[in-house]
């Protein structure tokens, strides 16, 4: 059977779950446009620019809380229930926003929406990483970048079903997702891991103790470099950069704000086909190098343009912001998110992803409230980000382990071999005993 036919049900689920990315991206883009319009200022009457900033800050802080809550809810009620709840909360937050006539009401809507988005951004990577076959996990996670919500028709995650003792249901889900042969082997791996983890007595505190702390450090490192390598700043600085290059005029750089998201969107299709073929570390290293080169060249060209505004070579700056975002999308946005969502064990995955996602939102909050350095240091800001990319490359090269084509259970044993070997030895009972305690609903 052709692989595409074998995984067709999995692809449909991934596409369904990922519809929300489009909605979240649309909401963010529309909101950013609205708060800059005179009509919004006349209606809301904000007390200075900081009022709008406080609104976005409240959104980001609420997303931190939503991310943390989602980790607990995903373990207790199931991954798909978190997606349903986050969708409902986002709908409520959006309704409050569109019906707002005062700034406090608008901020309340942002807070409610932020909680839902934070929960959604935690629930989707958990769900996608657990239903995806090992050889297609990056491809499935790439769909998250193309779209995002609609978890109402999603089925249960097989690993969560095993954790709740519902073995027959887990077997049926795996059979539909991955085919009969792979389902049988994967179910056995899941049961072995679950048996080991029952004796490890893993809890929230285990995330901060050795050897799980190593996984937490790897995940938080990935989330940190996702946020601090310039992805949020460069897109806001690009219009002024193009203006200095003579590619647009002041207050009319719509080209930059539309073209970059369009390029990012189309570059995501590259990930659908190629990311799983070369591995996470490969893409992270290649992407970080291209980002560093793009930032360095942008810094040099902007400094030259500041010294000589009429310099004939100023147009050479055009491709570098696009190169930066294409390779940030392929590396840190997709390969990085895939890596951060697959290295935890089943019992800790929801909590680990929740904490790391909350860290990402917290860093995003600080990026939002910190004054821009672009006007203060000009082209030097790009050089600062290039140096951060250099640190990121060292992190990827020496701290991360390649997980290409591995099942989630195989990743557990590669990253923590002694930990799981000892636990499995202490388990004692046979795997088949798990099915004796099975219950169905």
TrEMBL record:
<keyword id="KW-0472">Membrane</keyword>
<feature type="transmembrane region" description="Helical">
    <location>
        <begin position="81"/>
        <end position="100"/>
    </location>
</feature>
<dbReference type="GO" id="GO:0016020">
    <property type="term" value="C:membrane"/>
</dbReference>
<dbReference type="InterPro" id="IPR005828">
    <property type="entry name" value="MFS_sugar_transport-like"/>
</dbReference>
<feature type="transmembrane region" description="Helical">
    <location>
        <begin position="56"/>
        <end position="74"/>
    </location>
</feature>
<dbReference type="Pfam" id="PF00083">
    <property type="entry name" value="Sugar_tr"/>
</dbReference>
<dbReference type="InterPro" id="IPR003663">
    <property type="entry name" value="Sugar/inositol_transpt"/>
</dbReference>
<feature type="transmembrane region" description="Helical">
    <location>
        <begin position="283"/>
        <end position="302"/>
    </location>
</feature>
<feature type="domain" description="Major facilitator superfamily (MFS) profile">
    <location>
        <begin position="13"/>
        <end position="404"/>
    </location>
</feature>
<dbReference type="InterPro" id="IPR050360">
    <property type="entry name" value="MFS_Sugar_Transporters"/>
</dbReference>
<dbReference type="GO" id="GO:0005351">
    <property type="term" value="F:carbohydrate:proton symporter activity"/>
</dbReference>
<feature type="transmembrane region" description="Helical">
    <location>
        <begin position="352"/>
        <end position="374"/>
    </location>
</feature>
<feature type="transmembrane region" description="Helical">
    <location>
        <begin position="106"/>
        <end position="128"/>
    </location>
</feature>
<feature type="transmembrane region" description="Helical">
    <location>
        <begin position="322"/>
        <end position="340"/>
    </location>
</feature>
<dbReference type="InterPro" id="IPR036259">
    <property type="entry name" value="MFS_trans_sf"/>
</dbReference>
<dbReference type="InterPro" id="IPR020846">
    <property type="entry name" value="MFS_dom"/>
</dbReference>
<comment type="similarity">
    <text>Belongs to the major facilitator superfamily. Sugar transporter (TC 2.A.1.1) family.</text>
</comment>
<keyword id="KW-1133">Transmembrane helix</keyword>
<keyword id="KW-0812">Transmembrane</keyword>
<feature type="transmembrane region" description="Helical">
    <location>
        <begin position="12"/>
        <end position="36"/>
    </location>
</feature>
<feature type="transmembrane region" description="Helical">
    <location>
        <begin position="380"/>
        <end position="400"/>
    </location>
</feature>
<protein>
    <recommendedName>
        <fullName>Major facilitator superfamily (MFS) profile domain-containing protein</fullName>
    </recommendedName>
</protein>
<keyword id="KW-0813">Transport</keyword>
């Amino acid at each position: 059977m052709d692989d595409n036919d074998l995984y067709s049900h999995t692809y449909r689920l991934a596409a369904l779950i990922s519809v929300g990315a489009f909605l979240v991206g649309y909401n963010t883009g529309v909101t950013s446009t609205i708060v800059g319009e005179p009509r919004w200022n006349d209606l809301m009457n904000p007390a200075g620019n900081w009022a709008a900033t406080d609104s976005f800050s409240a959104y980001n802080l609420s997303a931190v809380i939503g991310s943390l809550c989602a980790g607990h809810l995903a373990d207790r009620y199931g991954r798909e229930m978190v997606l349903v709840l986050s969708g409902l909360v986002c709908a409520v937050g959006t309704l409050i926003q569109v019906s707002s006539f005062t700034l406090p009401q608008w901020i309340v809507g942002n807070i409610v929406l932020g909680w839902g988005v934070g929960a959604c951004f935690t629930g989707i990577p958990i769900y996608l990483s657990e239903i995806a076959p090992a050889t297609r996990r990056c491809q499935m996670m790439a769909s998250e970048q193309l779209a995002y919500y609609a978890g109402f028709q999603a089925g249960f995650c097989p690993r969560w079903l095993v954790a709740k003792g519902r073995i027959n249901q887990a077997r049926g889900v795996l059979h539909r997702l991955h085919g009969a042969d792979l389902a049988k082997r994967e179910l056995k791996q899941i049961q072995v891991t679950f048996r080991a983890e029952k004796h490890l007595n893993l809890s929230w505190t285990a995330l901060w103790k050795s050897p799980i702390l190593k996984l937490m450090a790897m995940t938080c490192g990935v989330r940190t470099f996702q946020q601090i390598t310039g992805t949020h700043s460069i897109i806001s600085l690009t219009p002024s950069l193009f203006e200095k290059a003579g590619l647009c005029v002041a207050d009319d750089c719509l080209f930059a704000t539309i073209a970059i998201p369009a390029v990012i969107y189309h570059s995501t299709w590259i990930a659908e086909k190629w990311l799983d073929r070369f591995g996470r570390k490969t893409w992270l290293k290649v992407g970080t190098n291209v980002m560093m080169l793009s930032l360095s060249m942008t810094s040099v060209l902007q400094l030259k343009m500041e010294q000589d505004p009429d310099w004939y070579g100023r147009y050479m700056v055009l491709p570098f912001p696009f190169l930066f975002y294409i390779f940030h999308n392929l590396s840190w946005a997709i390969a990085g998110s895939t890596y951060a969502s697959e290295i935890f064990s089943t019992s800790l995955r929801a909590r680990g992803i929740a904490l790391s996602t909350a860290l990402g939102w917290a860093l995003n909050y600080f990026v939002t409230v910190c004054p821009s350095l672009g006007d203060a240091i000009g082209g030097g800001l790009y050089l600062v980000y290039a140096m951060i990319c250099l640190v990121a490359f060292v992190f990827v090269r020496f701290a991360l382990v390649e997980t290409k084509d591995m099942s989630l259970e195989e990743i557990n044993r590669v990253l923590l071999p002694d930990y799981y070997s000892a636990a499995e030895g202490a388990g004692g009972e046979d795997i088949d005993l798990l099915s004796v305690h099975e219950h169905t609903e």
